[in-house]
Amino acid sequence: MELRDHTHPLVGILMGSSNDTDIMNRAYKVLSELKIPCEISVLSAHRTPDETIEYARTAEERNIKVLIAGAGMAAHLAGIVAANTMLPVIGVPISSGPLNGQDALYATVQMPSGTPVATVAINGAENAAYMAARILALDNTTLAINLEVKRNQKKQAILTKSPKGKNYGM
Amino acid sequence: MELRDHTHPLVGILMGSSNDTDIMNRAYKVLSELKIPCEISVLSAHRTPDETIEYARTAEERNIKVLIAGAGMAAHLAGIVAANTMLPVIGVPISSGPLNGQDALYATVQMPSGTPVATVAINGAENAAYMAARILALDNTTLAINLEVKRNQKKQAILTKSPKGKNYGM
Amino acid sequence: MELRDHTHPLVGILMGSSNDTDIMNRAYKVLSELKIPCEISVLSAHRTPDETIEYARTAEERNIKVLIAGAGMAAHLAGIVAANTMLPVIGVPISSGPLNGQDALYATVQMPSGTPVATVAINGAENAAYMAARILALDNTTLAINLEVKRNQKKQAILTKSPKGKNYGM
Amino acid sequence: MELRDHTHPLVGILMGSSNDTDIMNRAYKVLSELKIPCEISVLSAHRTPDETIEYARTAEERNIKVLIAGAGMAAHLAGIVAANTMLPVIGVPISSGPLNGQDALYATVQMPSGTPVATVAINGAENAAYMAARILALDNTTLAINLEVKRNQKKQAILTKSPKGKNYGM
Amino acid sequence: MELRDHTHPLVGILMGSSNDTDIMNRAYKVLSELKIPCEISVLSAHRTPDETIEYARTAEERNIKVLIAGAGMAAHLAGIVAANTMLPVIGVPISSGPLNGQDALYATVQMPSGTPVATVAINGAENAAYMAARILALDNTTLAINLEVKRNQKKQAILTKSPKGKNYGM
Amino acid sequence: MELRDHTHPLVGILMGSSNDTDIMNRAYKVLSELKIPCEISVLSAHRTPDETIEYARTAEERNIKVLIAGAGMAAHLAGIVAANTMLPVIGVPISSGPLNGQDALYATVQMPSGTPVATVAINGAENAAYMAARILALDNTTLAINLEVKRNQKKQAILTKSPKGKNYGM
Amino acid sequence: MELRDHTHPLVGILMGSSNDTDIMNRAYKVLSELKIPCEISVLSAHRTPDETIEYARTAEERNIKVLIAGAGMAAHLAGIVAANTMLPVIGVPISSGPLNGQDALYATVQMPSGTPVATVAINGAENAAYMAARILALDNTTLAINLEVKRNQKKQAILTKSPKGKNYGM
Amino acid sequence: MELRDHTHPLVGILMGSSNDTDIMNRAYKVLSELKIPCEISVLSAHRTPDETIEYARTAEERNIKVLIAGAGMAAHLAGIVAANTMLPVIGVPISSGPLNGQDALYATVQMPSGTPVATVAINGAENAAYMAARILALDNTTLAINLEVKRNQKKQAILTKSPKGKNYGM
To answer: What is the pTM of this model?
Structure first.
């Protein structure tokens, strides 16, 4: 089935606080460029625990395929979501507060056996979207092509931007 | 007994330096919103050791119930206070100096057995106040209700702030 | 009311894995020495999320006054418990795995505003019990005396153990 | 299509050194329990760069769906594999050497935008397998059921192992 | 053979992203001051893997003697280059992102046995150039003299800049 | 002998780079306030090794009593000075570069047995001066009094600055 | 005055717990070898606060010249001692518990301005003794000679132990 | 000129303490296998400063081409050697003491501009030897071939050791 036929989101993006909007919108933007339908919400493991669990538990029946969860500090969001769904959950540690995201990285990636969170770099919301796209592309040829095109664009961008200053040592 | 009947502070907030005022006033503000009488002082474990110990030792007889102590760098304040009272002491590590509060976190939380300090996040003065409120609410129904109201406000704030941008991938 | 009149636990000790039993039993032991009724359970934020939330939500009506939660790695247990009760929650970061508890410390202490966890040292289950005792002693004279007696014992233990080797430099 | 019909591996497990076999075999074991066909190889980004790239580039045409790459120290393996395939790549940082896997964690998770690695905990090979299973289960009902069964087993294991020692404070 | 007789670069400077240009140009500047012919390019281990490997494999036959590779975050560039050449490779960890280059340092320096990267300080592109110069000076007397002259200039700069404020304690 | 009778410096302050002047002048200022004669110089363990060793070796015969050495990054200055004198050497780690002085702290404090460096806080040049003063005051009553006066001023400054906002919970 | 004429200790060694005896006895041993009269005690900033402060305040009148304080975890001992004396205080961070002494290092060295602690390496009790000796040698020629002799012994030990295996590459 | 014609060492290996012999002998062993004449000595920046500087200053005239220096803790050896020679200096941080070599890594790699140290992994003495070999091979065809042979052996070792367990999911 082609991406354009979907009338519902395939990826659900969550963030623990509206302060994380700037970072997490980067995931939204990449998914949109790849024409992957998605939705974005603020839900906190600590301040809206019921709504967070409800979201996680109903995501599959709403035909969401991948969840992305970004949070800072003692970032429990991705782990709690992963504990309440069988969908793949991608975690984005966010650098808020004085520890520069080191706390969020540990709290996201160091999950105990049985409840995996696929963690990307601190503030790496773009890569969360690319990872979601790789998963969805396993079953979607159009998306696979879109990803390949985007990869080539990035490659060409580097090759044309390379400094040309060469100095042959006079 | 209702909170309004108290004519003396129930929580004593201490900070190791007047530079910490901006951070520690957040504890004062939360306590005030919850209508918990409190007082705030600058006392240093190193520069005013006698006054600090005197404060800690007389707090209980002055009917203070919980102490909050914030300090940066080699943050000894909370530990020294805890060594000189039997009241629960909440420690707030403060991020002053180049180590971003990592030093204050270790110096506050890694207390040896027998002298506990209930440590909150780096610069987490608000949570120090919420923890004090939870302790006081064990014995005060009005406060318990105030806390519940505040928690619901935070929850509603998140639920109404959630980005509504949903993209169904055309 | 005296401690001996309680026919139900006042403190609930939770741990995220049965591997944490050795550490968390130290809290149980201190509470027992102080004659504070308590109960101890294994509940995981990730593997038994429903039971964990149920436990947290019903603790208050079961007349528990303080909760202690110990977990290792991406230690979400204390935070999730704190999000589902208004009782004071004390967190014990546990050193399991290669990061020596640094991950558990961050995941326990760096809680966002509104959901405090009173964190003690890595593996500091004894101090979690002492902190619970200080909170309960606010309203219990017998316990306050027990705590004072125990503190004096620790003090005397140090004073009598001090090495006596003095060398006057011949 | 059912898992048993596959005559080729769906998951390729790579490790950077045969010293990592004990850790990475845990992924193999979990996948086998879930009846997911897989293969396991030692390939180094530094010592066998050609074979590593060849493996990554041909994985998709060999019908592999997910790659798992474990490495220690300056762990480049997962990143290099991710740069040479469009399949989802899961990275396992391994704690070899004096830095306890902190080096491998950073070298695996901190990938630049466009080349994502789904990182799990240090030595978290089991979760790498569970994440692979979650991805494959998006398209495989039998596997989804197997995962659910396994999750329930883990849950029951905790609930039956919970210490029963309750002390009502005589 | 004198440096001025070279009509081709002796040092190839690579960087993983054009964002690193400001840092890596410092290497270019030092090499130019020492009259060492060099070239500078943007090549990414992840986004242009083929071109990076091609560059590394052909460097020796193009008479390049030393390679310098700078990259940030999960900095794989220097390691991948070192795996595809026998020339000495100098790695420059770059502080991009919230971890201040600690990630890049580990990803550059912690190379496994057999594929060495000569790592300099975070953002230490100047020292990468000086190290390249020391290597080239083993076989080039003019360069050795240039290096000695530059070292003496630095020494004199210190000795003339020393604060002269002396206070004899009135 | 009184401080005013000295016609030569009693404390030598060294710094590894003129960039460290702002930090190290704080030591100079504190010593001047305490009327301790001192001198301040820029000398580098790496760029002026001969002059640094010469300075260290002749300090004692020039009647200097204490040396203070501040440096950033791989801060070798204090250690090299300590290796070439028997005078007490106080080390000041300086936060230059992306590691915030963590590198300088380790390079200054982790000295092997036999060559001690008395290390103060990162950027703690004032305390280096106070430590020098404590050492000199062992043999100088006037200085001991000056130190006591200064300590009392600091204490009074805190006691008068303490926030007076007290809120009794209406 | 010669060392042998002292009938009282010149150095007081304190440790925060009798568990630290093995480490801190190394200071005692070095001082004894240098014929510096000293005494060693266990005193805790948290468990025996009165005795600790009393010790610090009376040390000077008992003719002690230098204090050495070793403690682990949230190591407050050296700082509290320094706050209650004008004698130079040398701090020894001790590696007890899972953070390997990193916590004790921060809690000892990151002292605020006005209350200096001369910190040595983690577990560096020997260097604490050598630093005390350097301070005492300012005023004691015999000790200065003893130190010089000991330094030469260490130097000779290295020069005679150097591996002689030289391989000229057949 | 062929390696076998050398009657003097081309590489000088230094270590700061005889405790480092086990680690640093690995460099000696690799160099010997590659038939590179070398010598190995214990010299300390702190305990034998004169001999260390003398060694560094005379290395070039003794026809040594590359220096390798390994040290632990506040590892000043490589930096001091680099400050006293123009030869390329390779630094090996050694994990001695409780900080696992993190201290030695910072003290070795974070060198200021103008005095480069080519740092390898913590305890990475083998790679120090391989880096020395790469430098020497710039001018020595036999050595270049030896290196290539060794690299191929390592590659074959991996390819033959790869676990063959493949499970096709019954």
So the answer is: 0.95
